Amino acid sequence: MSLVRRILELLERDARHTPQQIAAMLGEDESRVAEEIGRLEKEKVILGHTAIINWEKAGDDGVTAMVEVKVTPEREVGFDAIANRICRFPEVRTVYLMSGLYDLAVVVHGKDLKDISTFISQKLATMHQVQSTTTHFVLKRYKQDGFIFDDKEKDRRLVVSP
Questions:
Q1: What does the DSSP 8-state code read for residue 122?
Q2: C-alpha gyration radius of the chain
Q3: What is the average pLDDT across 19-35?
Q4: What is the pTM assigned to this prediction?
């Protein structure tokens, strides 16, 4: 496996790793690892470093919804133009091109249900390429980006002692 792939996998699991820590874990030179990370950031392979936050435990009363959107693709650019326009709204967290009945899956976040419904009815649904939307409100998050929220399963490994 290439050095770049191993660096990316480590950062994906925990973005807090420093180049020094990554170099130690991989048995590589720290300056080479730092150089690769800098190159990957410059080339937009690494888009950012983020934390997965359990907002419910942090006291956030916000609402997340997944909106399926059926659109009319535009000549020459297909779905890209409308998807890029939707990406620019601050309420939008994620946009995916999908197969199936709907073309786009859009994850939006707002302070309450009215915030979400206002966004959909006044901004999203009014775009001329949008044919229809279906909204699903997130009731509870169990897992996100590989992290389980409120993992109650106990470690079942046997304790090994000398």
A1: I
A2: 21
A3: 94
A4: 0.80
